[in-house]
Amino acid sequence: GEQQRDRYQNTLLEIRKKIETSPRNKRYGEILKGLLQLRQLCLWQKGNQMHSTKVDFLIENLSQILEEGHQVLIFSQFTTYLNIIEKTIQENHWSYSRIDGTQTHRTRQSQVDNFQSGKTKVFLISLKAGGVGLNLTAADYVIHMDPWWNPAVEDQASDRAHRIGQKRPVTIYRLVTEGTIEEKIVKLHDQKRDLADSLLSGTNKGNRMTADDLMSLIKEGMK
After folding, report:
1. Based on the number of CB atoms within 10 Å of its own CB, is 81 exposed (0-12), middle (13-18) or buried (19 or more)?
2. Which residues contact 128 (CB under 8 A, 6 or more apart)?
3. E-assigned strand segments in the chain
4. What letter would DSSP give residue 176?
5. Are 159 and 89 in contact (CB under 8 A)?
6. What does the pLDDT look like over 50-97, one tens digit per residue?
7. Interior CA angle at 107 toward 116 and 101, to 5°?
8. CA 83 to each of CA 64, 91, 123, 149, 177: distance values in angstroms, whole numbers, following the listed order
9. d(C-alpha 37, C-alpha 2), whole Å
10. CA gap 145, 142 in Å, rounded
11. For 32, 39, 106, 156, which has the most beta carbons within 10 A of its beta carbon?
């Protein structure tokens, strides 16, 4: 709504001002913090961390998807956001599994087994857990709640449902907030499919985006 757009634009202006007035040696860190703040704001569109327009959309669609007998993978980079989704799923009395990187190998495997056997219908997975090596062919729907910097990682996550043994077509949804940093990230996917996941891991310095690259994302966010 208009109130949410105004809040986003005001936050964007505050972030730009803070970056422009920060010492040069701290500017990169300020840009990273600002981008994270904008991305999180896209999730909490209704102004607090207990109500999200995206979650409303998710639950509305999940009702129909589950009613039709499908199983669903839901990915997010933010475990706090998965907590909100989990609470809402519990309120709807839907069976679910969850992996967020904190479980033991045994617990992790039991979550997978419950989903693959059909005991649970929804699987919540965080970016830190990654899902690498998981075979989740019981799923025929994949929903990404927020776009990832590295499109290859997003594809790899979706491939959990595309493993050998999958007998049905897989439908993939990506929820993107129009006119925000999320939309810019998706455009970045089209321009740089080989972009490293440096903003999340900080490990691949060879492909690390420069301060100017990051600042252009924030400036282009202005409308």
Report:
1. buried
2. 79, 100, 101
3. 72-76, 96-99, 122-126, 141-144, 171-174
4. -
5. no
6. 567 889 899 999 999 999 999 999 999 888 889 999 999 999 999 999
7. 100
8. 22, 12, 13, 22, 20
9. 19
10. 10
11. 39
